[in-house]
Design brief:
Elements lengths: L30 H23 L12 H17 L4
Amino acid sequence: MPVSKRRKPRKRNQPQGGAAVIRKRRPSPQWVPGLMLAMFLIGIAWLLTYYFSNGGVLGMESLGGWNILVGFGFVVAGLGVATQWR
């Protein structure tokens, strides 16, 4: 029976079979962590102010129960910004 030829081993540097080239991602700008923390703190401060004042602060009276959504909206926006932090 004939013996098959030996194949040359593939080099590790070359992408195999159309694999995507992995690019190095740049670090995030300096303002991203600051904005993330600011959004968290604004959301928490909004919620604490609403709860401790029973909604009696000027501007919060008209929103009523929507103040909870506004506070959690800031927190969720902070989480959205956190996904951009590298």
